[in-house]
Amino acid sequence: DTAVSQTPKYLVTQMGNDKSIKCEQNLGHDTMYWYKQDSKKFLKIMFSYNNKELIINETVPNRFSPKSPDKAHLNLHINSLELGDSAVYFCASSQGRLTGELFFGEGSRLTVL
Amino acid sequence: GESVGLHLPTLSVQEGDNSIINCAYSNSASDYFIWYKQESGKGPQFIIDIRSNMDKRQGQRVTVLLNKTVKHLSLQIAATQPGDSAVYFCAWDTGFQKLVFGTGTRLLVSP
């Protein structure tokens, strides 16, 4: 059983389009995250949710809108995609609000043409 | 093939050698540190963590050393194996419920 699963794994789209990435965790964790990994492998936090409540919004353009329908799901919707949005997006979860061990999904590689 | 990670610091070792990967962190208030391993095409995986009240912690074949005076963290891997080839990241908490990742280091293990 996959602990943190993301779909789709690959996404290729044109500039200006809108796309979504879905994430689900079956670990019973309270906190979920979205991280962005650029072409230099740099990992940066975008958002975190604790029990469906947004607790971190890391100066991300408002074209990015996370949604957490319940504590096991955290989706990421991106409007008006730009070339610079091309990256690998990782969903993660942890038990508890702070840090602790993060469990990552396999990533969703977004390519904007 | 991928062009990502071309500018990533790289450590090349022979199988069986000991590896040391270093990390400088920026937040002197951090009290929790983690090392992650990321294999190609996968998400980062937890290796070992350490709290600021310790300066050394050992796991299976891995040891983390913490020097708070100079804000330096290192990961030692004993008897490195080809399966250890990956990108390694240190991470630290910022005190604001956020984990920040350092620049990764690519470890290449030759048979």
In words, what does this structure look like?
The complex is a heterodimer of chains A (113) and B (111). By secondary structure, chain A is an all-beta fold. Chain A has no helices and eleven strands. Chain A has strands at 4-7, 10-13, 19-25, 31-37, 43-50, 53-57, 64-70, 73-78, 87-94, 103-104, 108-112. In chain A, strands 2, 4, 5, 6, 9, 10 and 11 form a seven-stranded mixed beta sheet that branches. In chain A, strands 1-3-8-7 form a four-stranded antiparallel beta sheet, with no helix packed on it. In chain A, 36% of the residues are buried. Chain B has strands at residues 10-14, 19-24, 32-38, 45-51, 56-58, 62-67, 72-77, 86-93, 99-101, 105-110. In chain B, the strands form two sheets. In chain B, strands 1, 3, 4, 8, 9 and 10 form a six-stranded mixed beta sheet that branches. Chain B is globular. Classes of the chains: A mainly beta (113), B mainly beta (111). The A-B interface holds A 4, 35, 39-45, 48, 55-56, 58, 90, 92, 97-99, 101-107 and B 3-5, 7-8, 32, 34, 36, 38, 41-46, 49, 87, 89, 93, 96-101, 103-104.
CATH fold topology of chain A: Immunoglobulin-like
Total DSSP E strands of chain A: 11
Strand proportion of chain B, as a percent range, falls in over 45%
How many strands of chain B? 10
Radius of gyration of chain B in whole Å, from Cα?
A: 14 Å
Total helical elements of chain A: 0
Per-chain topology:
The complex is a heterodimer of chains A (113) and B (111).
Chain A: E1 4-7, E2 10-13, E3 19-25, E4 31-37, E5 43-50, E6 53-57, E7 64-70, E8 73-78, E9 87-94, E10 103-104, E11 108-112
Parallel strand pairs in A: 2-11
Antiparallel strand pairs in A: 1-3, 3-8, 4-5, 4-9, 5-6, 7-8, 9-10, 9-11
Chain B: E1 10-14, E2 19-24, E3 32-38, E4 45-51, E5 56-58, E6 62-67, E7 72-77, E8 86-93, E9 99-101, E10 105-110
Parallel strand pairs in B: 1-10
Antiparallel strand pairs in B: 2-7, 3-4, 3-8, 5-6, 6-7, 8-9, 8-10
